[in-house]
Design brief:
This protein is mainly α and 190 residues long. Helices cover 57% and strands 0% of the residues.
Length: 190
């Protein structure tokens, strides 16, 4: 697979996660999530920040010098679903374009391709985390599940080293690629 595949699947990933976010509106923000030590509020704050950072990077070809990964974002209790879905819409619009995946992004040593793949991983894994915390499902095509699995497999060792992924969770051999990606990232899809 290549960045053309990932770019082509980004709108589906953003749309699937946006449905979950809209469905989570009004949820108890103190609820537990699959992310160790994260309440739903903590997860949504992080997710709003990172999606904003990925949208900004795609639009401007640089990370925000003042807040490169969106860690300064404050969650607005009334408007977070709209803010987060707006970030997903912006990611979908910019990261589906081939030019966005070329070259580098100012402020990071990673190629744009790697940043785009990180965005796909972040969107789908945290979309699933929010879905799990709010009793919802994330529905993805087989192609998107396979692409997520490829991206997670390429980053699994580093992801565990930096604490982005948990310990691998075994899944059945006949499980979907989406479920296998969740397990590889330390999430129990069952």
């Amino acid at each position: 697979m290549c960045n053309a595949t990932t770019a082509g699947l980004m709108p589906e990933a953003c749309s699937a996660t946006a449905r979950v976010i809209k469905g989570a509106a009004g949820a108890d923000l103190a609820a537990a999530t699959p992310c160790d030590g994260f309440t739903l509020r903590t997860l949504l704050t992080h997710f709003t920040g990172t999606t904003g950072a990925f949208a900004y990077a795609g639009k401007t070809r640089s990370l925000d010098a003042n807040d490169p990964w969106g860690s300064a974002v404050q969650l607005n209790d009334d408007e977070w679903p709209e803010q987060l879905t707006a970030n997903l819409d912006a990611i979908s619009a910019v990261w589906c374009q081939q030019d966005t995946w070329q070259g580098t992004i100012q402020g990071t040593v990673m190629p744009a391709r790697s940043l785009g793949e990180m965005a796909l991983i972040e969107i789908l894994l945290h979309g699933w985390d929010v879905a799990r915390a709010t009793d919802q499902q994330v529905d993805v095509s087989d192609a998107l599940g396979a692409e997520l699995l490829r991206c997670v497999a390429e980053t699994a060792d580093l992801g565990r080293q930096v604490g982005a992924y948990g310990t691998k969770v075994p899944v059945a051999d006949n499980a979907s690629d989406f479920a296998k990606a969740l397990g590889l990232a330390g999430r129990s899809p069952n």
